[in-house]
Amino acid sequence: MSRLVTRLIEAGILPKTGAFSRHLLVTRSDDSSEQYRLGIVDQLRSAGVPTEAFFERSDLGTQLKYADKKGFGFAVILKPGSTRTIELRDLTLRQQHPVSEAELLARLVAA
């Protein structure tokens, strides 16, 4: 379904902003945090947050450009390593804030 919506946005049939601006991209940092990252994706989807996981091995800048091009409202950035630091980036305001796993969903619902 998210691929269909992406194609409709690209074709100009659906707006890039508005109702779809809450779509969220979970970025990829390293292989060691992949299970944790996919767990966050599952939690967000279960809570009704339209979420896409980035699977290609690319640097963070490339991933954020992809998110911006596709019209995502937010990106979840997981810092590499065992600390499991989460940054929530508002792609519209270009602001980024550290959040706990518990805060993540609350901030997205409030956005």
Automatic annotation (TrEMBL):
Keywords: Aminoacyl-tRNA synthetase, ATP-binding, Ligase, Nucleotide-binding, Protein biosynthesis. Pfam families: HGTP_anticodon. The keyword Isomerase does not apply. Coiled coil: none annotated. Gene3D superfamilies: Anticodon-binding domain. Signal peptide: none annotated. Residues 30-109 form the Anticodon-binding domain. InterPro entries: Anticodon-bd, Anticodon-bd_dom_sf. This is Anticodon-binding domain-containing protein.
